[in-house]
Each structure stands twice: as C-alpha cells, then as structure tokens.
C-alpha cells in the first residue's frame, strides 16, 4: 500500500498552505499550527489505505481540523484566550512592522492605514467563535464549495450555510457597514 | 418571491451554489428590490475585504521539510482491527483485478464479502435514484457540462461520453455513495430504461462481473481504464451493447 501513502504525501504537500492556513487561524500561532499539520500528516499516512475516494482535499483538511481541535482541547480555556489576544496584538504589530520596515518614500501614512486596517480585520476575525471563523476561512480564503466545507467540518450542508451566514453577519457588524462607493463597482 | 425567501437564497446565490431555476427567480426579485441588492453588494464587499486584507498564511519551509522527511520514513505496522480485514481482502481482489487475473470471487447471495456489500450499495443507489424526483444532480445538455461538474466533487472525474447517436442518451450525473466512498455516477437513458454507471472505488472493484437482483442487473465494465459498474433493467442484448460502447469509449 505504499502507493496509497505516496498519494497521501503528494496530496498533503499540494495542500500544505491550505492546511497550515486553517491551522494557523484555528490555533492562533505558528508553532501549534505547524505541529497540528504534522500530526495530521502522520494520521493521514496511517489511514491512507482506508481513504475511499471522494474529495481528497476535503478529506485531508478534515484530518488537519481534527488535529487542531485536539490541540485546542488540551490547552486550558483561560490560557487560550490570553494567547489569542496576545497573538492578535502581535499580528497587528507584525503587519505594521513589516510594512514600515523598508519604507523610504512619503507613503508612510497610507501604509500605516493599511496595516491598521489589516490588524483590525485579523482581530475581528480572531474574535469570532471558531466555528464561524473556520467556515469563513474555508469559504472566502480557501474557496471551498459548501459540499467540501461540509466534508471538512463533518457537518450537514445546512449547518455550513447557517454558520457562514452567522459568521458573515457578525463580521459585517463588527467591521461596520461598507461604504457603498467602495464596493458598487464590484457587481 | 418575497424579501424573506430572497435573503435566504442570497448567500448560496453569491457562493455559486444555487441551481439555475432558483437563481433566475432570485434575479427577478433582485431587479425590483434595492434592499436585497444592497445585501448582495455587502456580501461582495466583505469577500473583497477578506481576500485583499486577510493574510493567507503560507506553510513555513521548515514544516514542508518536516513533512517530506516524515513521508520518506517507514511507518510502524498498524494493529489490525476487524474492519480492516475485509478491506485488505478487497485490496487483494482489486490487485488481482488490476493484474487482469480471471480469479473473480464467486458471487454468493448470502455471503458477506466486500464485493457483495458494494453490489448491495450499487443496487440501492440505483433504486434510490429511480425513486427520487430526479435521478441526476446535474442535467446534461452535452458532455462538456457534465465533466466539469465533477471537478471538486470527486478526486477523479470519469470519462464522459454521450451515445445519443446510438440510442443511449446521457441524461446527467450525480454523486452517490458506495460504502463510505463518494463516487461519480453517469446517468443514461435508453428507451424507458434508466442506466446508472458508477465509477468504483478501489475497495469495491471486487463486485461480481455480472449479477441480477429483483430484475435489475449489475455489470462490471472498464470505463476509460477505471473499474465501473452498470446498473439497469435492460435485457441481455442491450446490456451487452452498452457495456461494449463504454469499454471502447475514448
């Protein structure tokens, strides 16, 4: 069955960014995300023989997600909240630092504004309950279909739809209404 | 359509998950309703914001290297659980099948092999489809519509060919289950007969070459090199003709 394992390796490496991004958003820091993805790979290789067709990316991301949830559970609730708050703050600072580091013209203010906007968005998304956050990441960033998201979350499509709706509504509310002149050309 | 139902359909519409008929009804409502149009524009605004400003974290090189190293390592043998025994058995059948061996396990209506379980699933899938309002999830107007529909739904899209010129019309396709595997199904019509062509997952490749159940027949066939099963209530000569067409399809 080494061919099945080779296929899993190929699959995991092809969707490694998607796996890491999901882990990073669920766990909130690099080390945990990397460890969870590594766990997931070991687990996926072991069950390579039992993989029975279907959407391979969703199968892989479902394993990644389970490993992330297992990690979340082992962390104590209080620690987690402190960690996430700290991370959200760090992310904002990192983004600002990265953008400002090699700035030598007069566009500092624009960049600062962009960095602040990004930091704010990260903080708002990180503040959402994880079940809404993961649905939004899978749909808006990873561009998975409802069916694929349902496979990853191991939940019915109806649940996916209601979590997406709720997540979008919460995020829209926390970001404030978009200015119409910014988005009108979008449709 | 009122605003209430329109709002419920807005997100699936925006996400490209609404069928064509419902989309048209929603669009008719949107033409006359500025509020719902605004709600749609807000969905789009949120997506643009997220895609433009949200970091998509790329896997660090160290992680990639770690996975590569892990992949080349030998895994310890796993403890066999009862469930895996038939999988292993099915895998050995699949190998025999792939090697072109004539060694097909004998079909026994009361046995409990993987092949029989798979055959049961296939018949059940066919009967479910016959009882459903529509036997297909996507309607075909030509094969170029069916093939892309599978993308993202199953690991490998099957070979799709229309035999309308020979009396076997491609009706459409759906996704069905064999065991836990999601499998692509092509649906054809021949006269009053509805025909399902299931592309078989590896552990179901051991289905009997030909078997009857309550007037319905299952015939194993190779579809573009992949093991597949045809389920229908056609008579022997029609079945043979169709199997021949599938086997020689390009």
What does this protein structure show overall?
The complex is a heterodimer of chains A (187) and B (250). By secondary structure, chain A is mostly helical. Chain A has a domain at 1-75: RNA polymerase sigma factor, region 2, helix turn helix motif (Rna Polymerase Sigma Factor, Chain: A, Orthogonal Bundle), CATH 1.10.1740.10. Helices cover 80% and strands 0% of the residues of chain A. Chain A has helices at residues 2-14, 16-27, 30-46, 56-74, 77-101, 108-127, 130-141, 146-153, 157-175, 180-183. The N and C termini of chain A lie far apart (49 Å). In chain A, 35% of the residues are buried. Chain B is α+β, with helices and mostly antiparallel strands and 250 residues long. Chain B folds into two domains: 3-53, Orthogonal Bundle (Arc Repressor Mutant, subunit A), CATH 1.10.10.1320; 108-247, Protein Transport Mog1p, Chain A. Chain B is built from eight helices and seven strands. Chain B has helices at residues 3-14, 20-32, 34-53, 61-71, 82-98, 114-131, 143-150, 236-247, and strands at 138-139, 169-178, 181-190, 193-199, 210-213, 216-223, 226-232. Chain B has a seven-stranded antiparallel sheet, sandwiched between helices. In chain B, a hairpin with a 2-residue loop joins strand 5 (210-213) and strand 6. In chain B, 33% of the residues are buried. At the A-B interface, helix 1, helix 2, helix 3, helix 6 and helix 7 of A face helix 3, helix 4, helix 5 and strand 3 of B.
Mean pLDDT of chain B: 80
What is the share of helical residues of chain A?
over 70%
CATH class of the largest domain in chain B: Alpha Beta
Beta-strand fraction estimate of chain A: under 5%
* Count of alpha/pi helices of chain B: 8
Rg of chain B (C-alpha, Å): 23 Å
Please work out how many helical segments of chain A DSSP would assign.
10
The count of β-strands of chain A is 0
- Mean pLDDT over the residues of chain A: 80
Q: Flag low-confidence runs of chain A.
A: 177-187
Q: Secondary-structure element sequence of chain B?
A: HHHHHHEHEEEEEEH
Could you tell me the number of beta strands of chain B?
Answer: 7
What is the name of the CATH architecture of the largest domain in chain B? 3-Layer(aba) Sandwich
* Protein chains sharing the most extensive interface: A-B, 60 and 50 residues
